[in-house]
Amino acid sequence: MAGKLVCESEIFHSIDEKANTAKNECFFVGFLDGILANNRIDHTELEPLLAECEAICRQVRDEDAAEIIAEASAGHQNTPQELLDLLTQIAEIRSEKIVSGCRRSSANRLLGFCAGINCDNVITTREASTLFERLKSAHDLEDDPRIVALRHVLLDALEDGKIDPPESAEISHLITSLVGDSYADTGIPSSDALPVVQDLDEIDLNLLDASRVVLTGS
Questions:
Q1: CA torsion 54→58→60→62, rounded to 10°?
Q2: Taking Cα atoms as reference points, which of 199, 21, 29 lies closest to residue 115?
Q3: DSSP label at 156?
Q4: pLDDT band, very low/low/confident/very high, at 71 (cuts 50, 70, 90)
Q5: Which of 16, 88, 165, 212 is the most exposed place for a label (fewest CB within 10 A)?
Q6: pLDDT at position 201
Q7: Is the dihedral of CA 70, 30, 91, 85 positive or negative?
Q8: How far is CA 179 from CA 95, 108, 127, 203, in A?
């Protein structure tokens, strides 16, 4: 007699753990991409970056995150540039391990990127421009109304080639609706409350004819 799989089965736990690991990896790489978007590490981004790395180290034994913390704490005279070089190297190496062409991975990396550029509540022209280009790639969030709104706002804001404070605030607000409050708002690392990429399911309405439908859950 075939065994029945239940929710507590170790098989399901293994599948969930693998999926969550891939999600966290894509998000973290995206976050690093966001920090690197200005081709420098701004002083307002350093604390959120280290908080994110500390959160990653609490969740898993991540050697790269630990190395970033150690480099920032070393007190070298040229620490900002050395940190920039280190983050660039880590992001490039870890990017190669992400499955190319996977729309779900691209979406989670995009969410990480959004959290990275928004960690200090300031969106620069370069960050906005890079985000606009990333939104053009294939990912599972293309039809999300928040992404659609963000795309339109970025297009309008970048028309004159620069992002002014009101435009920065509007873009930051839209990103918050997508990935949650920034570190600047809460002091909580983004990886402690990762946003979820929701599937958009289609339902044959004929199946619901003369039926009562009840919606449950969050």
A1: 30
A2: 29
A3: H
A4: very high
A5: 212
A6: 46
A7: negative
A8: 21, 10, 16, 27
